[in-house]
Amino acid sequence: MKILEAKNIDKYFRKPVDFHVLKDINFSIDKGKFVSIMGKSGSGKSTLLYILSTMDTDYEGELYLNNELITGKTEKELSIIRNKEIGFVFQFHYLLSDFSVIENVMLPAKKLGIKTLEEIKEDAFINLKKLGIEHLENKKASQVSGGEKQRVAIARALINNPSIIMGDEPTGNLDSKNADNIFNIFKELSQKQNLSLLIVTHDDDFAKRTDRIITMEDGKIIN
Amino acid sequence: MIQWKVIFSISKTHLVTRLKQTITAMLGVTFGIGAYITLMSFMSGLNQVLDDVILNQTPHIQIYNEIEPSKKQPIELFDKFKNNVHVVHSIKPKFTQKKIHNALPMINYLNKDKRIKKAIPQLKAQIFYISGSIELAGNLVGIIPLEEAEMFNLNDYILKGSLQELQNLDNGIILGSGAASKMSVNVNDKIQVSTISGDVFPLKIVGIYQSGVAAVDDIQSFAKIKTVQRMMAKPENYITNINVKLHDINIAPEISKKLTQLFDVYALDINTANAQFETGSSIRNLITYAVSITLLIVAGFGIYNILNMLIYEKMNDIAILKAIGFSGTDVQYIFLIQAIIIGFIGGVIGMVAGWSISYFISTLPFQTDGIPGLKTFPVLFSWWYYVIGIAFALISTFFAGYLPSLKAKKIDAVKIIRGQ
């Protein structure tokens, strides 16, 4: 079953000069697969990720999530899709620094507004526990370390049981031990919970251990 | 669907974690609203006192015989010159009696009219105060003391003595303060007053009167209307003025017009008599509003600035919120709510501050000869200013917050996230 499918995606940067960033991208991701995107800087891998994430809507082509066309939906509809179906892990912008760890994790579920506050809190705590950081629950987000922040971000990405987790170099800013740790968490999520993952990375070791590597060069998928 | 609870809690967290900035922004609003309320209360209080000075002692309609030239000169009545141009040189005013014809029935008639609160007679006479060999020119007004006190607050202007004593005493006089000090006389002294025809009467001073206008206080004095009639050897129906007080001051011009037609007398309404006063009041109000609105706009810019800065600081938060599923509108509400909370709390504190300062001002002693009866600064407490104040606080902070929040709504999360 296809979770995510891209058909004939083209993207241009207009400024400072016209530039064809993504050229006719076609690919799909099956459920439960751990996929990494590799490529040199400027190959368009991050640009592609942000299009797939629905945050960038300025492209040509068609994008399907759970076999539903999401190209051309309104900003509001897309934000609901992001809230429900997609979990994000970034390299830098981890958390809302004014909020506590558990509040950060709870935020997407509160926005979804399906469960009660108690249920959300319980879910958030279970997620923190799964990632081994339940002791940080009430700490302020700005007071925890980089590796811990990334784990909090993963807990947050999981809170609404999304169809897919997307990551933009989630281990790029971590030392090898923490990076390894994060990779193992991803791997486990993919194997045990049959979760789909799409991770942009520079890290060869990281990519080699995933189910599938998509390599990009000059705006095209070459492999 | 908008999850207001989450949006509120994020707004609250932003405000609480940046408490100093929040308080600064609130103080801006507080200052604006507080100053507005204080200024309005103080200015309106002053306006009202000044208005009262005029309104209380001025009749709404004064009826008297005006000295004026005849509207129709005799030549116009002559048929032969009907179609000619008339040129009359050196027109003199027509001789009219000062007394109002049929005054007593007229007063009865007026007092039966439901729109009229009261009509009371006066008799104005020119006299001389005799102090040794010196004669001072003056005006003696014959009144019905208690009715005058009731209708025109004459009591407020009696420095010493009382109108009650004037009512009781047939040869009493209440003397203007300027005249009294010129002649070095005081209450219970006796002075001699001479009429124009030369008859001299001894009168006992039962009170000193001060209107605040020196030119009036130097010459004006009051006696019972019967006393003045007797002095002038006139009968009881000799009345030169009728002062009318209405229930509704706004119909004064209309009624005065009718009276002029009905009785063939000159009826002057208060609006005509004090036209310049209205202008003064409305311009003072205008200035007060202009200053207050300026203050509030300055406060609005303060909020605009602080929210703008907050949004720059919170770029990352905005990007994350958008990435995890908050729509642009959600993000806009987060910042708009902050602006409105700042406006509301700042406005409420401003109302309290405005009331406190107004109250404090109203306790400060302030006395002036110009306005007798005034002990402290005049302040008008009107709930209306508080309603306008809080409404303006909310509206101005809404607009001050609207532009920055719109910016937050439009921020491209991808640019922020990729920018680092």
Question: Your description of this structure?
Answer:
The complex is a heterodimer of chains A (223) and B (420). Chain A is an alpha/beta fold and 223 residues long. Chain A has one domain: P-loop containing nucleotide triphosphate hydrolases (Rossmann fold, 3-Layer(aba) Sandwich), CATH 3.40.50.300. Chain A has helices at residues 45-52, 75-85, 101-112, 117-130, 146-158, 176-192, 204-208, and strands at residues 2-13, 19-30, 34-39, 60-65, 68-69, 86-89, 164-168, 196-200, 212-217, 220-221. In chain A, α4 (117-130) packs across α5. The relative contact order of chain A is 0.20. The model of chain A has no long low-confidence stretch (mean pLDDT 87). Chain B has a 6-stranded mixed beta barrel. Chain B is elongated and about 105 Å long. The two termini of chain B are 32 Å apart. The relative contact order of chain B is 0.18. The interface between A and B is medium-sized, with 31 and 28 residues.
SSE class of chain B: alpha+beta
CATH hierarchy class name of chain A: Alpha Beta
Seen as an oligomer or otherwise, the chain set is heterodimer
Mean pLDDT of chain B: 86
Q: Which structural class is indicated by helix and strand composition of chain A?
A: alpha/beta
Whole-number count of domains of chain A = 1
Name the beta content range of chain A. Answer: 25-35%
Mean pLDDT of chain A: 87
- Could you name the ranges of chain A where pLDDT drops below 50 across 5 or more consecutive residues? none
